[in-house]
Automatic annotation (TrEMBL), chain A:
<protein>
    <submittedName>
        <fullName>Amino acid ABC transporter permease</fullName>
    </submittedName>
</protein>
Automatic annotation (TrEMBL), chain B:
<keyword id="KW-0067">ATP-binding</keyword>
<protein>
    <submittedName>
        <fullName>Amino acid ABC transporter ATP-binding protein</fullName>
    </submittedName>
</protein>
<keyword id="KW-0547">Nucleotide-binding</keyword>
Automatic annotation (TrEMBL), chain C:
<protein>
    <submittedName>
        <fullName>Amino acid ABC transporter permease</fullName>
    </submittedName>
</protein>
Length: 223, 244, 223
């Protein structure tokens, strides 16, 4: 390709890439959150077979490279199951599952952070397991997990950049395209890096705000 | 000579030492008594340069501890034994003792280690040369702490409540070593709660009360009815100590 | 299609080469990260404000920008300023720098956890700052941060898979070749996923043992 300089249109491209990144980040985080919490609830009910299976899958997802997971879904699934998998579909499936595995770990420790004696007390009052989960555990677990959750989301934003490898036109992929066209790697990757950095800071700031708000509820505010 | 002249020390608004004067001559054993919060540990920490003075002067053999260049020399002439031992946890007793003589005094390692073994033998720890602090009892740790200080061949040994963290049995084994050092003529400045022991080994006793040096008397006079005991604060302190 | 692992048989040696390269890259990068982490940890505990600030910026930047962006920045950028190094070296440098940001946190908390009394003992015995640091602070901090540094290594193993995007034929890079040779991406990537998980699991066991071994004499028994 012929070398050419930056144009104002490139700003639009970057904005588009950032949009794809943030969009996929939000969607997969949400799906991951729902699945991960659901897995946590399954574990809370100690459902036989399902609990160890989930734990095993979560461990596998946590301890293998996301890139390999992505290749398995994008290249492996179509070949093996004779499916059509688009890059975006592969990205959504992989990132959601990966996020779910980490959410599951946070959910488990959040549930376990609630004191045994509280659960015993609630049970003594005749609350059902669901009622205990809903009214005793959930509010405290949410306050407990907001910190680790924010850290996870900042990390997962960065993980989304890997989907550029399978051809999703996210921010990193736009960076690669611009890099190839302009042959100005320092500027291109610095700008792309900065956009990721600012987005990460935004997530951290939102997380911190929710944390203070949730903490306020759980603090004793005097009589 | 170790000289403390009109020393003042405050932490924020709280005055801890208020114009303290004290002199320790070579060969003397001086005990500092006083209830907790009287400033006696702070005085030791001022002498070894861990705390900055707010006023006055401290000099060890004429080396002013407030001057960085002289502080290094002052520290070569004194050594501190701490209440909580403060041994280096990742080093064996031998390494704990040998580190400073080799690195600070630049003495040959073989010679230093030979002396360290002899020191450990003299405190009954020949078999603990290669043990780590975590595997020693509190009393054993403090004996190592004393050896570490002695290995620097200090002219003045500073002891900061060295038995406060120990149970009575371990206290006894540490005090026995200090008594022996006193008999051998080691110069010691000794902050302690052990009134009876201080009486046995000290030439002089100093009493600090709320940062003020109340009396500085030869041991016999301190315990005489007409001497230290004439001061109500001291009488009160001593009777309380006896009850404990 | 049947799940058939026998097709991998002829490629085991080939994949083994990739695994060896992954191991070499990770060990070199770990060494780089620990050295860098130590320097940055020192800087972050420095008395001088601008040194602390600089160290903080380094950690903040490299933790909040996706590794693939950092990697491309070095891979495409370095030749532009006349530095021509091979992809493997570039990968090791990028992994060391990214890992160093995390390692500095681990080492820094190891330094901050050291009992102040120990440092005072060193100070009054006249030990210089340099000797105190190299003989007392660092040995203790490195011992107590074995576990967090182990997490850095595990993350590094997973992250090193991204080097396959700059033509480094480590484990994932070799697997890509096998996948396209055999037309069996599902089997290849499924096995690869399990291999990574098993590898990190073994490493974490090794770290636990190392931690126990190095801290056997530090454990404080009742005095």
């Amino acid at each position: 390709m012929r070398y050419s300089d930056f144009t104002t249109y490139d700003l639009l491209l970057l904005a588009q890439g950032l949009g794809v990144t943030i969009g996929l980040f939000l969607v997969t985080s949400l799906i991951g959150l729902v699945i991960g919490v659901l897995w946590g609830v399954v574990r809370f009910y100690r459902i036989p077979l399902l609990t160890p299976l989930i734990t095993f899958i979560a461990e596998l997802l946590k301890n293998s490279p996301v890139l390999v997971q992505l290749f398995l879904v994008f290249f492996g699934f179509p070949a093996f199951f004779h499916l059509n998998v688009t890059p975006v579909q592969a990205a959504v499936v992989t990132l959601s599952a990966n996020t779910a595995a980490f959410i599951y770990v946070i959910a488990v420790s959040a549930i376990e952070s609630v004191g045994r004696e509280q659960i015993d007390a609630a049970r003594a009052f005749g609350l059902s397991r669901w009622q205990i989960l809903r009214h005793v555990i959930a509010p405290q677990a949410a306050a407990f997990s907001i910190g680790p959750l924010t850290a996870l989301l900042v990390n997962q934003l960065q993980v989304t950049s890997l989907i550029s490898v399978i051809g999703v036109m996210d921010l990193a992929k736009i960076g690669a395209t611009l890099n190839l066209r302009t042959l100005k790697p320092f500027i291109v990757w610095a700008v792309v890096g900065l956009l990721y950095y600012l987005t990460a800071k935004l997530i951290a700031a939102v997380g911190a705000r929710y944390e203070t708000r949730l903490r306020r509820f759980s603090e004793f505010r005097g009589l | 000579m170790l000289k403390v002249e009109n020393v003042k020390k405050a932490f924020g608004a709280a005055t801890v030492l208020d114009g303290v004067n004290l002199t320790v001559s070579p060969g003397e054993v001086v005990s500092i008594l006083g209830s907790s919060g009287s400033g006696k540990s702070t005085l030791i920490r001022c002498i070894n340069g861990l705390e900055k003075l707010n006023g006055g002067r401290i000099a060890i053999d004429d080396f002013d501890v407030a001057k960085p260049k002289e502080l290094a020399e002052a520290r070569k002439r004194s050594a501190t034994v701490f209440q909580l031992f403060n041994l280096y946890p990742h080093m064996t007793t031998l390494q704990n003792i040998a580190l400073a003589p080799v690195e600070v005094l630049k003495r040959p390692r073989a010679e230093v280690e030979q002396e360290a073994r002899a020191l450990l033998a003299s405190v009954g720890l020949s078999d603990k040369v290669d043990a780590y602090p975590a595997h020693l009892s509190g009393g054993q740790r403090q004996r190592v702490g004393i050896c570490r200080a002695l290995a620097m061949k200090p002219r003045y040994l500073l002891l900061d409540e060295v038995t406060s963290a120990l149970d009575p049995e371990m206290t006894a084994e540490v005090l026995a070593i200090l008594a022996k050092l006193a008999r051998e003529g080691t110069t010691m400045l000794f902050v302690t709660h052990e009134v009876e022991f201080a009486r046995q080994i000290s030439n002089r006793i100093v009493f600090l009360d709320k940062g003020v040096l109340l009396v500085d008397l030869p041991t016999e006079e301190f315990f005489a009815a007409s001497g230290g005991l004439a001061q109500p604060r001291i009488a009160q302190f001593l009777s309380k100590m006896k009850k404990d | 299609m049947q799940f058939d692992l026998t097709i991998l048989g002829p490629y085991l040696g080939f994949l083994g080469q990739g695994a060896v390269l992954t191991a070499v890259i990770c060990l070199l990068s770990l060494a780089g990260a620990v050295v860098l982490g130590m320097l940055v940890a020192i800087a972050r505990t420095s008395q001088t404000a601008w040194i602390r600030r600089l160290a903080f910026i380094y950690v903040d930047v490299f933790r909040n920008i996706p590794f693939i962006v950092q990697l491309f920045f070095f891979y495409y950028g370095l030749p532009e300023i006349g530095i021509y190094i091979d992809a493997i070296t570039t990968g090791v440098i990028a992994l060391s720098i990214a890992g160093g940001a995390y390692a500095s946190d681990a080492i820094r908390s190891g330094i901050l956890a050291i009992d102040n009394g120990i440092l005072e003992a060193a100070e009054v015995s006249g030990l210089s700052k340099r000797i105190t640091f190299t003989r007392i602070v660092l040995p203790i901090a490195l011992r107590t941060s074995v576990r967090p540094l182990g997490s850095v290594l595990i993350n590094m193993i997973l992250t090193s898979s991204i080097l396959s995007t700059i033509t480094v034929n480590e484990l994932t890079g070799q697997a890509k070749i096998v996948a396209s040779d055999t037309f069996r991406p599902f089997e290849v990537y499924a096995v690869l996923l399990v291999v990574y998980a098993a590898l990190t699991w073994l490493v974490s066991i090794g770290i636990s043992h190392l931690h126990k071994h190095l801290n056997r004499d530090l454990a404080s028994e009742a005095a």
